[in-house]
Amino acid sequence: MIITVDRIFSEADSTISLVKVDGKAVCFGLEDEYHAEKVVNETRVPAGTYPVRVRSEGGFHNCYGRKFADIHRGMLHIQDVPEFEFILIHVGNTDENTAGCLLVGTGAMAWEGDMSIQASVEAYRNLYSMVIEAAHADDLSIEILDSDRTAAWKGDALC
Asked: What is the pTM of this model?
């Protein structure tokens, strides 16, 4: 099973993406901004494909065990990202809620200087329920695409 994160718009502080599971659009994502060199707690994960496993320890795991007691079986943990540790998929609405992790929401607003996602808890519950079995079976990966950095998305090809 594969989660695809297709980054479609970015600015100085954050990035909006379309999140798909096995090719089907499921929700939007929000991450920190692009930096060629990593800036701690301010840089999105580099484009690429990474395994997603289950993390069953730490503060998020304990909190989500209470908050999502009906479905929680560990955090979705993006593995093997160079120079990054403990990259999770979790709830939140703005870049203030992430330190390199992927936030998910059912809607997205891409106003310049004020990007956010909405209904994060609903989106998280949906995405998590779709992929947690595959993560436990070590059969889940995440493909991250930088479409926001191509000419067409920057508007260069629109003139």
From this structure: 0.92
